[in-house]
Amino acid sequence: MKSSWSDFFNNRKKILSFFALVVLTILVAILFSKFLIWNESRIGKIFNDPILGRFKPINVSALIGVLTNGAIFLAILSLLKRPSTTIYLLVAITMMCIIRGLSIYLVVLEPPVNIIPLRDPLLELSFYQGQVLLKDLFFSGHTANIILSGLLVENVRTKRIIIFLGLVVGVLLVLQHVHYSIDVLAAPVFAILTYKLSILIGNLWIINTTGIEKRHGKIWDELGFISRAKKLSGPKT
Q1: Contact between 170 and 162 (Cβ < 8 Å)
Q2: Distance separating alpha carbons of residues 81 and 50, to the nearest angstrom
Q3: Is the pLDDT of residue 146 over 90?
Q4: Residue 96 DSSP one-character state
């Protein structure tokens, strides 16, 4: 049986656990933004990317913004419908900030030589103190966040659409030289890792604490490929 928000907020233990997670997520996000600002002052290495060297950058900032915001909005709209998926989302945001922070700290890169900076006025005004970030490179946050949000969504069709948009955004980021190709290629791997950890932590901590139904996090099954294969193979005789 799936939980509803009305049932969820009838339990004080669930409410306290939920708001503790909200506060934790906000604090981690703020610390991560401060880390990104500090990271801009670090001297990194320039990666000789064989893919970026083959073409000049193309400014597709507007398209990246539309696809990114559209995909994230679609995912959040779906995830906020139930408390369990909302909790998984909050855990995933926290884990992505931590994992990406560690990755950027360990892999210090200078931006591509011909980069066309990707502007995000909302983030620049709210979290980045008016700065345009150029060194939050390995791995691509845009690509990983979209794919992660797609993995969290339960509806198979919506999940596939969002993940596809994440891959498209990754290609566009390379076209604009916002990221090295390795940043984008690594993003799906880190998105899957973050998703798996988020499901595990959600199940072990938040979900068990609040008594909400658990999720298994089997990606191939959640994408509908296993169930489709079973239908195509037909019943055993």
Answers
A1: no
A2: 44
A3: yes
A4: H
Number of structural domains (the chain) is 1
Any domain includes 61: yes
Enter the tokens of residue 132.
């345009």
Instruction: Give the separation between CA 154 and CA 215, rounded to whole angstroms.
Output: 10
Cis link prior to 139 (omega < 30° from 0)? yes
Q: Is the dihedral of CA 190, 195, 200, 205 positive or negative?
A: positive
Give the pLDDT confidence of 148-190 residue by residue, as tens digits. 999 999 999 999 999 999 999 999 999 999 999 999 999 999 9
The answer as to whether 97 is a domain residue is yes
Q: Which two three-digit tokens encode residue 37?
A: 């600002």
What values do phi and psi take at 171, rounded to 5? Answer: -65, -45
What's this model's pTM, rounded to 2 decimal places? Answer: 0.88
Distance (Å) of CA 113 to CA 45, 47, 71, 108, 139: 11, 10, 29, 15, 18
Domain that holds residue 21: 5-227
Q: What angle do CA 201, 205, 208 make, to 5 degrees?
A: 120
